[in-house]
Amino acid sequence: MKQKILLLLFLNFFYFSYASEIIVIPSNQFNIDNNKKLILSNLDVTYINIQWSGEKTSITFDVNYEFETPVTIIKIGTPYKVINPADNKLYVLYFTELPLITITTHDLIVDDPYVLGNFRIVETNQNTVISNIGIQYRGASSQFLPKKPFEIEFWNDVTGEETHDESLLGMHSDDGWNLQAMYNESLRFHSKTNNDLWRLIHKPYYLNSEPEAASGIEMKYAELFLNGEYRGIYCVGEKVNRKLLKLKKYNKNIKGELYKGDQWGESTLLNSLLSYDNNQSLWGGYEYKHPKEETDWTNIYNFVDFVVNETDSKFLSEYKTKFEINNAVDYFIFLNLLRATDNRGKNLYLAKYNNNSPYFYVPWDLDGTFGTIWNGQHENITNDLLSNGLYDRLLNDCSAGGFREKLNLRWSELRNTLITHSSLMTMLTNNYNILKQNGVYERESMAWPDYNADETELDYISTWLTNRLAFLDLKFSESCNTLDVATFDRVLKTTIYPNPTSDVVNISLVDNLKYTIFLYDTTGKLLLNDHFEGDQYQISIKDLSKGIYYIKVLDSDNKVDVKRVIKN
Questions:
Q1: Mean pLDDT (whole number) for 361-386
Q2: How many C-beta neighbours within 10 Å does residue 39 have?
């Protein structure tokens, strides 16, 4: 009897020891691309390593696969070779922390109309949304790229007659969502970082009345399998619409308004005025978005007419009632910080919260930024200002509390908080690290053979951003001359010597005034902020590391100069 008990104990120990080596993945937390021989799971690796703590030899994805080499610790982003014993084929297995999206369709996806699909998104914590959807391609030039963006709509039926709202990945609830492909973004982080930055910089002016209103969209990463094919990393993105912005609903008359700058047009750039037709949903580059119950271009026509044709005196006295000035200031800073050349009129929404309230801007499609343009190519220009017809006129407002004064003050405020080299690079690097650590760049290359993650992009952006910030520090601290804004000279006559130097830097100024001296390193970190009065100043840099530094001098009239000094 005793021998039988010992034998049973041994068999139980053998069984549970062997079983603990076989990882079992729930059927909703993996996808397999049989053509690419790729398996991707987002089951929590911490859970896996606790649940199956020993050496792992097998893993089950409905059928059993054998690890080519036994594994003790499972890590995200690490490729594991596994063998399907049924056909002896070798697959590459990855674990990711990112949500998995699975879409299947019965018909070919086209630009329009939506076609029926089945949708599932699963997070690592097993939060799941499953629904019928309508799916179509979105975008213009991006549709000609190999990796295409999509637009989806959640359906209650199979025809799209009824839709329903869903909250995805903790974002606001809506029936329509975008899946951004980011194919023209080398490291797949421009759009997401920029939209996050805008929401940090700007809040809706009517937030007290609408506490859930957003100033722009939120985006979150997910990995997509479409009809059994791994399509790579996408950003699940909110749509700019009435619900996101909390614009007033139509109530037998137009209250809130929303127009999308869909094309480069004279009206979107606010340079000239065109006649309109209320039977058309497009006018002058704009697409009519809200209200859907009535199409009437009168209000926006009158606004464009005001910007284009009003006299200088009347424009300056009335524009604050037509356009929200703090939004105008924040967007001008944002536009030029990113040097978003594709976002001066096109890729820009014009919105109004309620009747008799001012218009405001909402950004969109923020991919060509930080020294790149819309097609992903570098354009290493840092010394220009982007504008449109509205900003051309706003820059002439030199009144107390006017646009130029608010621009100076807001830039100074943001340069001490959100708009520093360090904080901006941290945002970009954090998104890069998420994708890098999860092995996304390797899988993007598997999905799109022409893709190669250019990891020098971060260095390029860092250098570009240093130069861009130095230029904007100069331009956005300029005072205003109503007679000649464009050519008004606000540059201090400053001399620094010796340069290069290993010890001290002497600063010589023409006038005997009050000055503020700033010293920055190439990351934008502020090393010195000092005030003095006179025409000579000396900075000791002997304790600093060798390299390049920037000296900014600001006088009491807000004249400014930025000099580069080399520590040897």
A1: 94
A2: 23
CA angle centred on 18, ends 16 and 21, rounded to 5°: 105
Residue 512: pLDDT band (50, 70, 90) is confident
> Rounded CA gap, 302 and 466, in Å?
41
Please name the residue that has the structure tokens 């399907």.
Answer: 84
Check whether 485 has a pLDDT greater than 50: no
Q: Are 531 and 515 in contact (CB under 8 A)?
A: yes
Residue (of 464, 472, 475, 466) closest to 525 by Cα position: 466
> Helices 190-201 and 421-437 sit at what angle, rounded to 10 degrees?
140
The percentage of residues in the chain with a pLDDT greater than 70, rounded to a whole number, is 92
Tokens of 346: 């096109």
CA 428/CA 431 separation, integer angstroms: 5
Distance set, CA 124 to CA 63, 159, 402 (Å): 21, 31, 50
Identify the burial level of 64 via C-beta atoms within 10 angstroms of its C-beta, where 0-12 means exposed, 13-18 middle and 19 or more buried.
Answer: middle
How many helices (H) and strands (E) the chain has is answered by 12, 26
Q: Is 506 helix (H, G, I), strand (E, B) or coil?
A: strand
CA-wise closest residue to 527 among 515, 513, 544, 512 = 544
Pairing state of beta strands 526-540 and 89-95? unpaired
What tokens were used for 234? 């996408």
Predicted model pTM: 0.82
Q: Torsions phi, psi of 480, nearest 5?
A: -120, 140
- 239: Cβ contacts below 8 Å, ≥ 6 apart: 174, 176, 177, 178, 217
Q: Residue 57, class by beta-carbon neighbours within 10 Å (0-12 exposed, 13-18 middle, 19+ buried)?
A: middle
**510 pLDDT exceeds 80?**
no
- Residue 3's pLDDT is what? 43
Best CA proximity match to 496, nearest among 538, 526, 530? 538
Q: Which of 40, 121, 116 is nearest to 77 (CA)?
A: 40
Q: Are 210 and 246 in contact (CB under 8 A)?
A: yes
Residues 494, 561 contacting (CB under 8 angstroms): yes
Q: Which of 383, 431, 496 is nearest to 220 (CA)?
A: 431
| Tokens standing for residue 379 | 């354009």
Ranges of beta strands (E only) in 369-473 are none
Burial class for 69, CB neighbours closer than 10 Å (0-12, 13-18, 19+): exposed
